Amino acid sequence: MKLRIPEYIKEIAPYVPGKPIEALAREYGITDTVKLASNENPMGPSPKALAALQHVMADLHRYPDEPPYVLTRRLAEKFQVADNQVVLGNGSDELLEMLGRCLLQPGDEVIIPHPSFLMYTIVARSAGAVPVMVPLKHMTLDLDAMAASVTPRTRLIFVCNPNNPTGTVVSGPALAAFLAKVPEQVAVVVDEAYFEFVRDDTCRSGMTYLADDPRVVTLRTFSKAYGLAGLRVGYGVMAAPLADMLHRVRMPFNVNAPAQAAAVAALDDHEFLARTIANTHQGLDFLYAQLNRRGLQAFPSQGNFFLIDLGRPADQVYEAMLRHGVIVRPMNGYGYPNTIRLTVGLPEENQRFLIALDAVLAGESAS
Ligand SMILES: Cc1ncc(COP(=O)(O)O)c(C=O)c1O
Fold first, then answer.
1. Which atom of ligand 1 approaches the CA of 163 most closely?
2. Nearest to residue 224, comparing CAs of 39, 4, 71?
3. What distance in angstroms lies between residue 360's CA and the mean position of ligand 1's atoms?
């Protein structure tokens, strides 16, 4: 290729999403697939969101409200911040991208826990910045080591809380102590994509610290607990001057009209949110008990997913489970070759997973 693409772009390893249900239908002809690979909400979308969508369809020939007034207002109210502290994105992924564009230049350093959400590295590399990977300690973010990795070139630190893929959290006091060590020119992005599922009451949102600390950016999403992954809505809560910078690089109309309407309605659907959280917690407890009984190590998680150490190469188990119509996520790409990540499903989906796992593991020991 004659085009002059910067070396730092060529070095980006493409993001590999969970296998789509459609791909399993194409490749294996399986139509009753259970997908427990992308930390989606198995309950479907919020019914109130679905109802709201019907009302916007007739206006699809119009551009969406820009910036989205009602959704911004509702979020500002919910978190008791000013409207100009909320920035909406096409998924929280887009917030990550906007933050990278505003904060990073080639040669800057970005501190990233490892393993954690793979997009952090892509965001850093896209800007020509250097990802500084800090290994987890006991499956948890090692905040001391992360603070110790700060140099004069550090511009951004990612704190994933709960951490994807390990499901661990850092406590409020640990986060506060960490923030106290980080110099003032370094932004700390606290990614709370799974915060609604947290049961550990020592955990605090990054928003708790924002009033005293304008470097803290908290990201949330409608993709997980609110069941709207397909519509792509996420948001960041941050200091107004930084939000102003993000708006400058943000594409206009980045949150489409159906997404805006559905997200506003989902915020009001307390019953759906409560059912989602109850299903997640019951599913986690059920699956932990079942996997323990099988002698498999399942790691405690505060998210809607958790890791299972299979004690054998996970990619083979993953492939074999696909033939049973069950999609899980092998963790090779995250540095855990014997581990899969499982998203909690509906009770019947969790059962399907166990039946498929038993069949695959039995088949493996028989062969
Ligand atoms: C930790 C974390 N952050 C952000 C995202 C992106 O979510 P979305 O772009 O759907 O809001 C995900 C999605 O899996 C995630 O796991």
1. 1
2. 39
3. 30
